[in-house]
Design a protein that fits this description.
heterodimer, A: mainly alpha, globular, B: about 230 residues, alpha/beta, Rossmann fold, 6-stranded mixed sheet
């Protein structure tokens, strides 16, 4: 129906965006009738989402418009900006942990950034901006989500087990000894979505990248193998990021005198 | 007079604008059983947390056997100044694993006999292999006390060890503490909101109000002062 109403591709996409946003708004208003208030968050998220993705569209049009392989550095700048944004967003939910940016920035750079660089270097990942930017952004976004999950779980584990942690400290235990069971639980929980992605690949879902390649006329077998490569990269980057951020954040919840310093009620 | 085993000097802790502990000074000598009394929110638990250095003083310090405790490694200090908390906070596993936890941090492994002796001391003979999930509140507190004693601390800090228990279990723990403190000639500071319990167990007392030490002396003097002030 929309294709007949809007023959121009850009106008058609805008109309499709409005239709999709309307569905999301309807969900929010249905939830409101059940006393679940999502409308404000939904409107803000939709507004932010459309503005951000349109800006990225303009940037990509500019980058891809620059012909020649010499523009790989511009892809690098874009990916670095994405790494910075990912570190900031992941840190936002756990800002009560002192110096949290000193955890999220190195973790995502060493996890996602190094993975992208390494894969590009050995030729697994094409360095053309058309490939490097979208695949890189997928790796970074997945690492960001994993890190946000890890940090949130870690904070919750520490908050829930404050009594046991301090009981151990009071017996002369080292902070890392007391955190060990929660570090393990944190990393396992944070990686559940990535592990599920790998497990259900091709059975429950056909990821967007593969679907896009098939739609663009690629050989489905080639598209499937490349999709596995990307999902494996996502898992690797998420695993390294989760591990690094959880190991690094441990020292941020204790003072130099080995006191738990996450905010808690006094007296 | 000999050097006090423990001496707090102008000990303070400020959080934001609030003075949780305000310039508290006192001394505890070997063998003293000091009751810390005062109304809720007076800073009693905060004082014990400062002595164990679970929180950092914003002013003043504590001397342990004449040495500023900031010069000691926090882990060494906490092994010497054992703390039994209001809730048992036992670790998952068996009773014996809980008792072995503290000494293991110093690469010292308790023998089965040592575990059995500690358990007999707290009135739980034969409990070594019992899972902590199968303990009553009173039994868990006894295990918590045995776990603290396993480190052989020079000073014992007891944060209302009977407050979370029913009356019968509380009486059991109090009798146990009375016996162990006397038999082992332990030095202890014990928070209690029950002045009668303070009178039964302690020889000296500190009265705290709004983070300040308003009276220190014999337990009778301090309880009398508390009754007069309130």
């Amino acid at each position: 129906m929309l294709t007949q109403l809007f023959p121009d591709p850009i106008t058609l996409r805008a109309a499709q965006a409005v239709a999709a946003a309307l569905v999301a708004l309807i969900v929010a208003f249905v939830a409101r009738r059940q006393q679940i208030h999502l409308e404000r968050e939904t409107v803000i998220a939709l507004g932010r989402g459309i503005i951000q993705i349109v800006i990225v569209g303009f940037v990509l049009r500019f980058v891809l418009g620059l012909h020649g392989q010499g523009q790989w550095w511009l892809s690098g700048v874009l990916l670095l900006a994405m790494l910075g944004a990912g570190a900031t967003i992941a840190a936002r939910r756990t800002q009560q942990i002192p110096g949290i940016y000193l955890v999220t920035i190195p973790a995502i750079v060493l996890g996602a950034g190094v993975m992208i660089g390494l894969m590009a270097l050995i030729g697994v990942l094409d360095t053309a901006p058309t490939s490097l930017i979208p695949v890189g952004s997928m790796v970074i976004a997945n690492a960001m989500n994993t890190m946000a999950l890890a940090l949130d779980r870690f904070r919750a584990e520490v908050a829930t087990h404050t009594g046991q942690i301090e009981a151990g400290l009071a017996l002369g235990a080292a902070p890392n000894v007391m955190l060990a069971p929660y570090v393990q639980a944190t990393i396992q929980a944070a990686l559940i979505p990535s592990v599920n992605n790998l497990r259900s690949l091709g059975i429950v879902w056909i990821p967007g990248l593969m679907a896009g390649m098939v739609l663009a006329g690629s050989n489905p077998l080639e598209a499937a193998i490349y999709q596995f490569v990307v999902i494996a990269m996502l898992f690797g980057a998420a695993g390294i990021t989760a591990l690094l951020c959880t190991l690094m954040v441990r020292s941020h919840v204790f003072s130099a005198a080995e006191q738990l310093i996450l905010p808690r009620e006094e007296m | 007079m000999s050097t006090p085993l423990l001496r707090a000097e102008h000990l303070s802790r400020q959080v934001g604008d609030k003075m949780i502990i305000d310039q508290i000074s006192f001394a505890v000598h070997t063998g003293d059983l000091v009751a810390v009394i005062g109304p809720s929110g007076a800073g009693k638990s905060s004082l014990l947390r400062l002595i164990n250095r679970l929180d950092e003083p914003t002013g003043g310090t504590v001397y342990l056997q004449g040495q500023d405790y900031r010069e000691l490694a926090p882990r060494d200090l906490r092994r010497q100044v054992g703390m039994m908390m209001q809730a048992a906070h036992l670790f998952p596993g068996t009773v014996a694993e809980n008792l072995r936890f503290g000494p293991r941090q110093q690469q010292r492994e308790l023998t089965d006999d040592e575990v059995a002796t500690l358990l007999a001391q707290v009135g739980l003979p034969g409990f070594a292999d019992r899972e902590i999930t199968h303990l009553s509140g009173g039994e868990a507190q006894r295990v918590s006390l045995a776990r603290t004693l396993a480190n052989r601390p020079a000073v014992l800090l007891l944060d209302e060890p009977t407050s979370a228990l029913d009356e019968r279990a509380a009486q059991g723990i109090e009798a146990l503490l009375q016996r162990i403190l006397q038999e082992e000639k332990l030095t202890a500071l014990m928070i209690t909101h029950d002045t009668e319990q303070a009178a039964r167990l302690a020889n000296r007392a500190l009265l705290l109000k709004a983070g300040q030490l308003v009276r220190a002396g014999t337990v009778t003097e301090v309880i009398h002062a508390n009754a007069t002030l309130s």
